[in-house]
Amino acid sequence: MNTALQKSPIPDTHAFVIKALKQSVFDPNWHFHPEYQIFMVLKGSGTRFIGDHVHPFKKGEITFTGPDLPHLWRSDIQGEPQKNSFQAEGIVVYFQENFIGENLLQKEEAIKLRHLFKKSLRGMDVTGKTAQIVQKMLVKLLKLNGFDRVLHLMKILNCMAQSEETELLASDGYTNTQKEGDTERMNRVYAHVMRRFTEKIRISEVATLAHMTPTSFSRYFKIHANKTFSEFVSEIRIGHACKLLIDKKTNVSRACYESGFQTLSNFNRQFKKITGRTPLEYKRAYLLNR
């Protein structure tokens, strides 16, 4: 098992780490680490898990997560990933809070930066025109060296700190209660649900994967995911339905049944509960935003 706490170590010789990712899939493991992380998707789509937040992701998204916030980008891949096929590309930056300098961070000039770091503890999306600006800045950051690279990262953080075009992800008050052993167990559960969400999933079969009784598993999952297992499965199904409605231009009825729901009435009820809109309203809003 990969240790969750040493996922992204920063060498003592560097202020931060930036990587260009070109992979068949993004890292499929649920994990957390002590560094702050900026992640931009350049290619690929799938389902994103951040704390108790579950949502589809797509090209162009920029997400800022704080220390020890569990996260996972699970790519949509049909069949086995092909060797040397890069279907998941992105840019990731890891840094620690003291990268700025503890003394400077406590000064009045850094008040918005402190607020930004606080928001990142729930995970946040950078949206709108700010996202477009930060996208270009991250690409440029890859090409810089030395202290120019440090200054440019500070400009990126300042750009995000000054902007109101951000959306918080995990629930207010969400706390990571997981230990290293929990990440392996949750990975098994998430992988099973992602494979089988279009079918009926019995809690007994998932509890067996976690080596628990159904009652113990239900209690365990609610504590660590901040929601019931059935709520989690519904979020995965609705996320898939959103992609069908938008990317595949599927009609509502077909999206319902291809996402694992048995009745249209339940699908419509769950869709509005999770997205705040009916399926048709969601589709119209997407087209309008485009």
Question: Would you give an account of this structure?
Answer:
This protein has 290 residues and is of the alpha+beta class. It folds into two domains: 4-168, Jelly Rolls (Sandwich), CATH 2.60.120; 180-289, Homeodomain-like (Arc Repressor Mutant, subunit A), CATH 1.10.10.60. The chain contains eleven helices and nine strands. The strands form two sheets. It has a six-stranded antiparallel β-sheet. Strands 4-3-6 form a three-stranded antiparallel β-sheet, covered by helices on one side. The chain is globular, with a radius of gyration of 20 Å. Keywords: DNA-binding, Transcription, Transcription regulation. This is Transcriptional regulator, AraC family.
List descriptors.
disordered N terminus, Arc Repressor Mutant, subunit A, three-stranded antiparallel beta sheet, six-stranded antiparallel beta sheet, globular, Jelly Rolls, alpha+beta, Transcriptional regulator, AraC family, 2 domains, sequence-specific DNA binding, 290 residues
